[in-house]
Amino acid sequence: MEEKHKLLKKITDEMNGASALLAGMAASESDDMWSLATMTGILADYWQKIYDAYQNEQPVAFTNFGIPTELFYAMDIMPIVVDVLAANAAQYGLAHTYNDIASEKVPEYLCSNNTILLGALLAGDVALPDIMVHPANPCDSNMGTYPVFSEYFKYPYFMIDMPYTTTEKSIPYVVNEFKRLIVLLEEKTGRKLDYDRLREAMAYSNIVHDNVLKLGKLREAVPSPYSSMEVMAEIGIVMCTSGTKGAADYFQKRHDIIKENVENKKGHLASDEEKLRVVWIYGAPTFDMGIYEWSEKEHGALLVSQMNNNYVMKPVKDISDIDHILAGLAEKLTLMPMTRECGGPWENYLDNSIDLLRRYKADVGIFGGNVGCKSNWAIAKLVKDKIQEELGIPILNVELDLFDDRIASSDTIKGQLGDFFSMVKNNKGV
Amino acid sequence: MHALDALKTISGNLVNPYIEEWKGEGKKVVGFFCSYVPEEILYAADILPVRVRAPGCKDTASADVYFSHHNCSFMRSCLEYALEGKYEFLDGIVFTNSCDHVRRVYDTLRETCEDKFPFLEFISVPHKTSEQSISFYKDELIEFQKRAEIFSGKKAGDEGLQKAIDVYNDTRSLLKKVYELRTGSTPCLTGEDSLNVILGGLSMPKEKYNELLERLLLETGKTEGLSDYSARLMVSGSGGCEDPEYFKTIEDLGGLIVTDTLCFGSRYFWKPVEINGDLMNSLAVSYMNRPSCASMGDRVVERNDYIMKMAEAFHVDGVIYERMRYCDLWGGQILQLRKKLQEAEIPLLELEREYIFGAAGQLKTRVQAFLERLGR
After folding, report:
1. Does residue B352 belong to any structural domain of this protein?
2. Is B97 on the interface with A (CB under 8 A)?
C-alpha cells in the first residue's frame, strides 16, 4: 500500500520540511518568506489530505487544471490536480525517472505534464483514482493521453467538452457537461452532491477570486510588491485549493498585506533595484524555481506576472442555486489561464499577452516554449512580431521543457536570459 | 486508360482536368482539411470539395518561418504550399479544430494570406459524441451551409442535400466494394493502388469518381489476384499518412497492405450517412458516429475495436502503426492499442514518419525485420 503512494509521500514530506524551514526564516508576515511558507504549508496539507484519502478509502479524482475543485470538495472527493503533481514531481527531481519510464510506452514528444503522470502510474508510485476529469481544451497532448490512460489503467473518465470558440452557446454547453459530470461522480464514488457544502465551497472560492483579482491589480504597481517566487507559487494554491477555508484565509490576509505595501510604495525590490519588469507570456519552467530568484539577483529582472496566474474570473455572484453556480464554474473554466489562451483562436493568446505586458508595464517578455505545447510553438513567431509591432517590447523565445531539464537545463536557460537581460538593459541604459 | 491508371494520375497532382473543368464552368472549388467536414454540404451548394494535401512537397522553408520543428510536417507542408501560392486554384479552405496543428494553420493563413482565400471557414467540432455535442455540431453545420450557399450563390435545399448525400453514399458503398477485393487470399489491388484510388477521389466530383470506381471494379474483377506476397498487413495511425510511395516501399519488400484504418483510408468511407428524418441532423449523427479520429476523447474503445475488427475481417498477419512525428493525438493512442494487439497476439510495428518521405533505407530495415518476425 505504501509503495503506491511513494510520490505523494515524497511531495508531502518535502513540502512539510520546506514550509517549516521557510517559516523559521520569515521575520514578519510582510516578509515574502511568510507567504512562501504559508503557501507551501497549504500545499503540504493538500497533499497530506490526498494521502489520507487513499488510506481512508475516501474517493480521489485526477483532475486537469481548470476543472473546478469546488465541486469535488463539496462532494468530499479529493481532487489531485495532475499538473501540480507533475510540477511538484519535477521540483523534487523525479521528472527524469518518470519520463524515462513513460518513454518506453509513448512518444517522448508528448507533453511532460502527461508523461510524468504516466511514468508515475506505470512505476506504481501513484495509486489509481476513482475517476479522471479533464476539459477538452487546451491541447492535443491531454486529449491524446488522458482518455487512453483511463482505458489502459481501467478507471472511469469524463471529459468536459468545450466549444472551440467562445460564444453565447459556450457557457450553457459547459453547464450541461457539469451536470453530466455530477451524475457520473455520484455514480462512481457513491458521494452525493451536498448543496450546502457546495455553497460553502463557492463562498470560499469567491473570497479567493475576489482577492486574486485585487492582488492582480495591486501587482501592477511600480515597484512590484511581489517576489518572482510568489508570482510563480500562488498558481498552485488557486488550482488545488479553491473552495477551501485555507485558501480563502491566505488570499484575504495576503491582500491586506500587499495593499498596505503598495500604499507605502514598498516593493519587493527597491525602485532602483527593479531594473527590468519581466512577464513570462508562456511556459515558465517549474523544475527549478531558482531561475527566477537568480534573474532578480543577477539582473534586477523581476517577474511581475505570467500567463498562468493571469486570473481574470470574477467571483460567482449568485450562489443561491445550482444553475447559477454551475454557470459561474463554467465561466471560470472557460476563462482559466492557458485554457483560454491556448484552447481557441490565436487572438485569444495574442490579446491576453498584450494585455498582460501592458498592464504590468513590462520591459521584456519571455516565451517559455514548452516543447510539448505544439499549438503555441506554431504561433510563437506571429505573436512575437505582433507584440513588437504594437508595444515595442522585446520577446525572448526559449525552447524548454516545463518539467524536465534535459531539453534546456537551468544553466542553459539562465545563459539565454542573462544575455537577453543584459542586451535590453544596455539598450535602455540601465 | 484503365480506371486505376486514371486515378493514380489524379492522386499524384494537386490540380487535375476534373478540377479545371469544374472551374471552367464558373463554379467554386474549396479545400478542406478534416474528414469531419461534411463534403455533402459543399457539394450540394455546387462547390467542389477537395481534400487539402501537399503531394510532391520537397521542403518547408517558407512554412518554417511560422511553424516550429515541433509542429507536424504534414501541416507544415500544407502551409508551405499555401504560402507558395500552390493552392491558388482553391477559392477557400475549411478548417476544424481536429488538432492543434491544423487550427494553427488556419490562424496563420488568416494572418498572412486571407486575401488569397475569400472563403476561409472554420467548423467547431465537438470532442465527444453525445446528444448535446451532436446538436451543437448540427447547428455548426447549418451555419456553415448558409455561408457556403451565400458564397456559391446556390441554395441547395433539402432536395439538393439529399442528392449530395446519395452521391456520397454511393461513393462509400463503391469504395467498400473496392476494399472487399482485398479480403480474400488473392487480393486484386495492392495497398499502394488502393491508396491511390482513395486519394484520386478526394479531388474530383464524386459523380465522376463513382463512374471510375464502377469501371475499376469491373476491370480489377477480371485480373488475376496477387499471391506472391509474404504477409498480409494493415496500416493504422495518424492523419497525413497518405503517400503511396511509402506504401510501395513496404510492399516492395514482400508485404501486402490489405487494409487500413487511416483517415485517408477506410475511416473516410466505412460508414454511410444514415438518413433518419432531418437531413442535417442525419449528417451530424452520422459524422459524429463514424470510425473516430483520436481527437474524440470518449471513443478510445470504439477506435481500438474498429482496428481489431478490420484486422480480423482482412485476415491480417501484422499491423503497421505509422504516425506523424509530433502528432500527440495518435502518439498517445498507441499505449492502449499495443496492449489490445498483444492480447490478440497480432504483431505490431510502430513507425514514426515525416510527411516528406525520406529515410527510405531506415524504413526498409524496420519493415524487413518485421516481416522476418512474422516468419514470412
Report:
1. no
2. yes
Residue B344's closest CA among B321, B318, B366? Answer: B318
Alpha-carbon gap, residue A396 to A377, rounded angstroms:
13
Give the ipTM.
0.96
Instruction: Count the domains in chain B.
Output: 1
Looking at residue B91, what DSSP letter applies? S
Residues in chain A within 8 Å Cβ distance of B80: none
Annotate B224-280 with DSSP letters as a single string. Answer: PPP---SEEEEEEE-TT---HHHHHHHHTTTEEEEEE--TTTHHHHSSPPPP-SSHH
Which CATH number do you get for residue B122?
3.40.50.11890
Which of B34, B73, B77, B100 should be substituted to probe chain A, the one whose Cβ sees the most A Cβ atoms within 10 Å? B100
Report the amino acid identity of residue A414: K
pLDDT tens string A282-306: 999 999 999 999 999 999 999 999 9
**Per-residue model confidence (pLDDT) at position A2:** 61
User: Structural domain of residue B78, as residue ranges?
Assistant: 16-154
| Cβ proximity of B295 and B98 under 8 Å | yes
Nearest to B107 among A157, A161, A379 (CB): A379
Question: For an interface test with A, which of B127, B128, B348 has the most A Cβ atoms less than 10 Å from its Cβ?
Answer: B127
Tell me if B147 is assigned to some domain: yes
Q: How far apart are CA A311 and CA A247, in angstroms?
A: 15
Q: Residue A110: list chain B partners with CB under 8 A.
A: 328, 331-332
Instruction: Kindly report, residue by residue over A56-81, the tens digit of the pLDDT.
Output: 999 999 999 999 999 999 999 999 99
**Closest chain A residue to B340 measured between Cα atoms?**
A152
Q: Tell if the CB–CB gap between A163 and B104 is shorter than 8 Å.
A: no
Q: How far apart are CA A311 and CA A338, in angstroms?
A: 10
Average pLDDT over residues A10-37: 86
Mutate to test the interface with B, among A104, A148, A390 (most CBs of B within 10 A): A148
Kindly tell me if the per-residue pLDDT of A361 is higher than 80.
Answer: yes
Cα–Cα distance, B374 to B231 (Å, whole number): 8
In degrees and rounded to multiples of 5, residue B346 shows phi and psi of -105, 120
Could you tell me if B326 lies within 8 Å of chain A, comparing CB atoms? yes
Number of neighbours of residue B20 by Cβ within 10 angstroms = 12
How high does pLDDT run on average in chain B?
96
What distance in Å separates residue B98's CA from the closest CA in chain A? 9
Q: In A, which residues are within 8 Å of B107 by CB distance?
A: 345-346, 378-379, 382
Interface of B with A in 194-253 (CB under 8 A): none
Q: Per-domain residue ranges for chain A?
A: 2-191
Architecture of domain A2-191: 3-Layer(aba) Sandwich (3.40)
Chain B contact set for A111 (CB, 8 A): 328
C-alpha to C-alpha distance for A202 and A71, rounded to whole angstroms: 9
Strands, E assignment, A24-111? 60-63, 78-81
Give the span between the Cα atoms of A362 and A349, in whole angstroms: 17
pLDDT tens, position by position, B336-367: 999 999 999 999 999 999 999 988 999 999 99
Q: How confident is the model at residue A1 (pLDDT cuts 50, 70, 90)?
A: low
Residue B136 domain-assigned?
A: yes
Q: For residue B128, is it within any domain?
A: yes
Low-confidence ranges of chain B (pLDDT < 50): none
Cβ neighbours of B83 in A, within 8 Å = none
Q: What are phi and psi of B95, to 5 degrees?
A: -115, 165
User: b vs e for B184-212, b when ≥16 Cβ sit within 10 Å of the residue's Cβ?
Assistant: eeebbbbbbbbbbbbbbbbbbbbeebbeb
What value does the mean pLDDT take over residues A271-281?
Answer: 96
